[in-house]
Design brief:
It is a single chain. By secondary structure, this protein is α+β, with helices and mostly antiparallel strands. Among the domains are: 7-55, no CATH class; 129-268 and 302-346, no CATH class. The protein is built from 12 helices and 17 strands. The strands form 2 sheets. A 10-stranded mixed beta sheet has the order 9-7-6-10-8-11-14-15-16-17, with helices on both faces. α1 (9-15) runs antiparallel to α2 (20-32), α3 runs parallel beside α4 and α10 crosses α12. The protein is elongated. The relative contact order is 0.14.
Length: 348
């Protein structure tokens, strides 16, 4: 298969029956299109192949940086990536994206690894160092959830005038039953107990548990979740606190966006990833990965379940920095840049 001129899926099937690249592209086109997919044109766009001129990218080329680094591990990849990401083009001489075909952030059980959270921490720290997104503010929410302390299973609903940085969760409630609302939400009946005694992490729905874990992994102790920090069923409290949500989101250290979760039961950290890739050698003897394209910011974030929720427009616009947890990728969004978990620096 030549990458220098358009071909159709039919040509790939006819001419590339024994070609790994042809078969990879053909499978991706077949998976993404219904009907007569064989006539869909496949076009090269720098380091990627696209389906039609304005269509989605189906594969990308990635550089193998192992020989360029002191030791081949994710932490060196992250550091090297941030050095390169400051430039408009990561590797103009080859037209190949910097980064591995798949960041080894998910283990065999689809659980995020230490390297995954290391990347998220680097995103925050780089923004803190180089941007003005994290401007200081004096606002502090009426209530926050304290997720620190020695007992990881115990959470406290705190009321205080001020405090350190806090995260905020943007999420879909879904359609919880009255029984679920009574069990999970802060209500007039359990409010005092949650403030004085606390409540249990293991008793929370999965989306809330994931938000607590992200907050802890990223080095913070305070988290704001609407259904836990606003007393549900207390009309006066809801009216007062709902009017303050603008300040809550605008003043948060960072927003956790559960983009892939249609409800609070499903969670957003565990994913079912099955990327396809193989390694080839360029004419200059450089190792290059050919892999299926697993990032689509518009589809993953803009068209994800979270953005079907009415409140989310306000939450997204007001947030200074957001980490979007989608079904296939995790994205960083701030006023300066959009970054992807697979080390792609998206146009902004």
């Amino acid at each position: 298969m030549s990458l220098d001129h358009p071909e159709s899926a039919f040509e790939l099937r006819t001419l590339g029956i024994n070609c790994l690249l042809c078969n990879l592209v053909l499978n991706l086109v077949r998976r993404g299109y219904s009907g007569d997919y064989q006539q869909v044109p496949i076009i090269r766009d720098n380091s990627a192949l696209k389906v039609t001129t304005d269509g989605p990218r189906v594969i990308r080329l990635c550089a193998d940086l192992g020989s360029s680094l002191p030791s081949f591990n994710i932490f060196n990849y992250v550091a090297y990536y941030f050095m390169l990401a400051k430039e408009p083009s990561t590797d103009g001489s080859y037209g190949i994206e910097i980064g591995p075909p798949i960041l080894q952030t998910i283990n065999l059980f689809d659980i995020p690894s230490a390297s995954y959270f290391q990347l998220l921490r680097e995103w925050l720290q780089e923004c803190d160092r180089s941007h003005t997104c994290n401007r200081q503010t004096q606002y502090w929410p009426t209530r926050v959830i304290f997720v620190g302390g020695p007992d990881s299973n115990k959470l406290i609903l705190q009321e205080q005038a001020s405090g350190e940085d806090y995260f905020v969760l943007s999420h879909c409630w879904g359609k919880p039953t009255d029984k679920e609302k009574k069990r999970f939400c802060t209500t007039p009946e359990n409010y005092r107990d949650r403030v004085k005694v606390g409540f249990i992490y293991n008793d929370l729905p999965k989306t809330f548990q994931d938000a607590v874990r992200v907050t802890r992994e990223l080095g913070k102790e305070y988290l704001w979740i609407d259904s836990l920090c606003i007393i549900q069923g207390d009309e006066e409290d809801w009216k007062r606190e709902a009017g303050r949500m603008e300040q809550v989101f605008a003043s948060a250290y960072c927003t956790i966006a559960a983009s892939s979760a249609p409800n609070w039961r499903d969670g957003f950290l565990e994913r079912n990833l099955s990327p396809q890739y193989f390694q080839i050698q360029s004419s200059s003897r450089r190792q290059v990965y050919v892999c299926d394209n697993t990032h689509d910011y518009s589809k993953d974030v803009d068209e994800g379940p979270l953005n079907k929720r009415a409140w989310v427009l306000q939450e997204r616009v007001l947030s200074r920095r957001t980490i979007h947890f989608s079904a296939k990728q995790t994205y960083w969004e701030c006023a300066k840049v959009v970054l992807c978990e697979n080390f792609i620096r998206l146009q902004w």
